[in-house]
Design a protein that fits this description.
Layout (H helix, E strand, L loop, with lengths): L6 E6 L2 E6 L29 E2 L7 E8 L3 E8 L4 E8 L5 E4 L6 H4 L13 E10 L4 E13 L2 E15 L8 E4 L13 H7 L7 E5 L8 E5 L2 E2 L8 E4 L7 E4 L1 E4 L2 E4 L4 E5 L6 E3 L1 H10 L3 E3 L2 E4 L10 E5 L2 E5 L1 H4 E4 L2 E4 L1 E3 L9 E4 L1 H4 L2 E6 L4 E6 L2
Parallel strand pairs: 3-14, 6-11, 7-10, 19-28, 20-27
Antiparallel strand pairs: 1-2, 4-5, 4-13, 5-6, 5-9, 7-11, 8-9, 9-10, 12-13, 12-29, 15-30, 16-19, 17-18, 17-23, 20-28, 21-22, 22-26, 23-24, 25-26, 29-30
Length: 380
């Protein structure tokens, strides 16, 4: 079935939803061969406390490590609750899940929300349209109760997709954005902002511990920081521009020589991205330094040389954060892939890198909305 540029009307038994639909060009790109989605100082009003494991103010929500590619958690929407697996994403702001009325092939492979099965559902006629690195969705904005474990957001706005591009191979149903509010996307209040507003979390902060190799053990925590998940002290970096999780990065080096970000650059700490993404020239330089050769859309290295490759060191706020070759090279089906990928550069944009799971599995990360800063420390 094709959606034409007409007004669609969907009758939901006792509820009626008017859904304006316009024809949309596909933005799908070729996914990586291994089905990866590569998809980002002010005065402090309070002092963030670093708490013990038994602190009852911290809300812990388990995440599942999917093949060292994504970390996924369950949420529930509606009354009675309908369960979904979502990607907790600091690189975006919106929450969305598939609608039962979605016609895209990917929707048939994932759990879909049934509006009329929820007594707390409220519809709108507002279009929801958002794009990620190589995928996009379109649908409409609705309201319902959303639960993240014991956290409850009442009358939470979120998107229900009617059209999805590029989500056929992902292991999750939807995305839960933990970025700053972005009125240009839907105008909807992000779920974390609603949780803070409704008093569901004790402090406006959340943190990620992303395990490597193990399927279980990862966690996103809300309302505080547990010292048991990291070593040493947290190093705090102010966000470079309030409104997203970008920070200033000093340089990127190998063997003591700066190879990228020579005059400083921007970095987005993005739990929704698997790899390390940067501009084409510095990424190409790093590929040459690690002797990676192109094969299709990928770069591969000899698996026998991985143990001899140097770490890539990201220096942030004067602190070095080394990423060893065992992290920036991924072994799969007899090949060793480089986890450095090109990030398309926008017009007039300064050099910007995306530090995804490859980086965040090594470093415990704290996202402090109250102080507009990010804390980093080696993960245990």
């Amino acid at each position: 079935m094709k959606w034409l540029g007409l007004l669609g009307l969907v009758a939901l038994s006792e509820c009626m939803v008017i859904i304006p639909i316009t024809q949309m060009k596909s933005m799908q790109e070729t996914l990586r061969e291994r089905n990866l989605l590569t998809n980002f100082s002010e005065e402090h009003p309070y002092s963030l406390s670093q708490k013990a494991a038994n602190d009852q103010n911290i809300i812990y929500h388990p995440l599942k490590n999917y093949k060292d590619v994504f970390h996924i958690g369950n949420i529930n929407i509606g009354t009675p609750p309908q369960e979904f697996q979502v990607l907790f994403d600091t690189g975006s702001s919106s929450l969305w899940v598939p609608s039962i009325y979605c016609q895209s092939p990917s929707c048939y492979k994932h759990n879909s929300f049934v509006p009329c099965n929820s007594s707390t559902f409220k519809a709108t006629n507002q279009i929801f349209n958002t794009n990620y690195t190589s995928v996009s969705i379109k649908g409409y904005v609705v309201y319902d109760t959303v639960r993240i474990g014991n956290l409850v957001s009442v009358a939470q706005p979120f998107g229900l997709s009617l059209k999805e591009f590029g989500f056929e191979h992902v292991p999750f149903d939807g995305i839960l954005g933990l970025g700053y509010p972005r009125p240009t996307v839907t105008g909807a209040t992000p779920i974390f902002d609603n949780l803070v507003k409704q008093g569901a979390v004790s402090e406006p902060v959340f943190a990620f511990y992303l395990s490597s190799q193990k399927e279980n053990g990862s966690v996103v925590m809300f309302g505080g920081v547990n010292r048991d998940y990291y070593k040493g002290e947290l190093n705090w970096v102010p966000v470079s521009q309030v409104g997203n999780w970008h920070i200033n990065m000093d340089s990127i080096s190998m063997n003591g020589t700066v190879v990228a970000c020579k005059r400083g650059c921007q970095a987005l700490l993005d739990t929704g991205t698997t790899v390390l993404r940067g501009p084409i020239r510095p990424v190409s330089k790093i590929q040459k330094l690690i002797h990676a050769r192109p094969i299709g859309h990928e770069h591969v290295v000899s698996c026998q040389t991985v143990g001899t490759l140097p770490p890539v060191v990201f220096t942030i706020n004067g602190i070095d954060y080394p990423v060893p070759a065992q992290a920036y090279i991924q072994s799969l089906s007899g090949y060793c892939y480089s986890n450095f990928l090109v990030r398309p550069r926008r017009v007039n944009e300064s050099e910007t890198w995306v530090l995804g799971e490859v980086f965040l599995r090594l470093y415990f990360s704290v996202f402090d909305r109250g102080n507009n800063r990010i804390g980093l420390a080696p993960a245990v």
